[in-house]
Specification:
285 residues; mainly alpha; 12 helices
């Protein structure tokens, strides 16, 4: 069950990143964050009302609130780093996010077996290579590296926080709803600051109504990924769930290959193969 839900997390996050990356080419990143997360919050609000999730309110919601504070900051830093580039450095470096939940799992006493340790090493190496690391070229700006590391730390922190936000299914819906509301508030504040500094809130043609379904998909895929990761981490070792969930860059690369006809570099294809091998080792270990 852990492997299934963690891999589902990778699929959902990979597609959400792919969609978000495409949308930010035409729409400012803070607007993408606010609209996509607002759509997810609306759907989750309806689910919470239908399932009576309010009855699950308790101290654990502070973890969801904290995840909601951290998530948009990490996402905006990641988008800004991608804009500064090069993507061949930013994408692989962001996979360091897996170190946070894996470290938490080890601190809490998890001790993966030898086969699982090998699977973790192989899978993480595969994810880094699948991002197409830039091995030569001009030096990367320090600010780009700093933004990417902040994003990685933020993503990993969200991984760790969301697993503590609930212990039941209805409680999980409520936790994700609280997280999304916080995401919208933080993203809205970032959008306001951007506009005050002269940035654009919308593309030149106005609000991209034609992109609304895609924006909603990004938000719903992101929230679904948080949900599946929470289930995966609660039903198995966090060290395994976190590594399998971190395979999303492979999904993003494959989506770009399938939808945009982008060619995978040899290093990316090798990375995808190593990620698959690491997954098999983790699943069988």
């Amino acid at each position: 069950m852990t492997a299934f839900f963690a891999l589902a997390t990778s699929l959902l996050w990979g597609l959400a990143d792919f969609g978000g990356g495409l949308l930010t080419r035409r729409t400012p990143a803070p607007t993408v964050v606010v609209v996509s997360q607002a759509a997810a919050a609306a759907v989750l609000g309806a689910i919470v009302l239908a399932t009576g999730g309010w009855s699950e309110a308790g101290p654990r919601l502070w973890f969801a609130f904290a995840a909601g504070l951290v998530g948009p900051v990490a996402l905006l830093c990641f988008y800004k780093a991608l804009a500064r580039g090069p993507m061949g450095v930013v994408s692989p470096l962001a996979t360091l996010s897996v170190a946070v939940p894996v470290g938490v799992g080890l601190v809490l006493g998890e001790r993966p077996g030898l086969l699982q340790v090998a699977g973790i090493a192989v899978a993480v190496s595969g994810v880094v290579l699948a991002g197409g690391p830039q091995l030569r070229g001009a030096p990367v700006q320090r600010q780009t590296i700093l933004l990417t590391l902040i994003a990685a730390l933020g993503f990993g922190t969200v991984f760790a926080l969301i697993t503590e936000a609930s212990t039941t299914v209805t409680g999980l819906f409520l936790a994700l709803f609280v997280q999304r509301l916080t995401n919208v508030a933080v993203g809205g504040a970032a959008l306001y600051v951007s506009v005050q500094r002269g940035g654009a809130a919308l593309p030149e043609g106005g609000f991209p109504w034609a992109s609304l379904p895609a924006l909603a998909f990004v938000g719903l895929a992101d929230v679904a990924a948080n949900g599946t990761y929470s289930v995966a981490a609660q039903h198995g070792p966090v060290t395994v769930a976190a590594v399998l969930a971190s395979l999303y860059p492979v999904v993003t690369a494959l989506a770009a290959r399938g939808f945009l006809r982008e060619r995978l570099r040899a290093v990316q294809a090798a990375g995808a193969g190593l990620a698959l091998l690491g997954t098999l080792l983790l699943a069988t270990g």
